[in-house]
What we know:
Layout: H1 2-36, H2 40-43, H3 46-66, H4 71-81, H5 91-111, H6 116-123
Amino acid sequence: MDAVNSIIEIAGPLMLGLACGALFRKFVYPRVLEQLGSLARPVTSSANTWMLVVQICATLGLAVACHASNAMATLMWMHEHLPPLPFPFTQGLIHWLFLGATFFSGYFLALIPSSEAEEEQASGTQA
Length: 127
């Protein structure tokens, strides 16, 4: 039962992030690009796609560091290497960081365009 809970704990925020990112991409993103007008070209560039990949890697790294199996090691590292913070880092806070990082991994994954044609259609420009 513990293995099932662990899988649900990982898949839940990831799937929620994928759903939110897909809804943003379908309904909000075209409106944002429409409002940007001629400035939409840099937003739909390949550099933006690579930045999404970097953000996915960063959030996945944070999720791995904050997972329950690594939480104590992460807390020890933080106490050794970071200056004192105005609030204490606890296992509960580390767990919430894990859930947030997992959500944003899915969200950023959903924002990656599936093809160049999709980007051109969304921005309303032709290459």
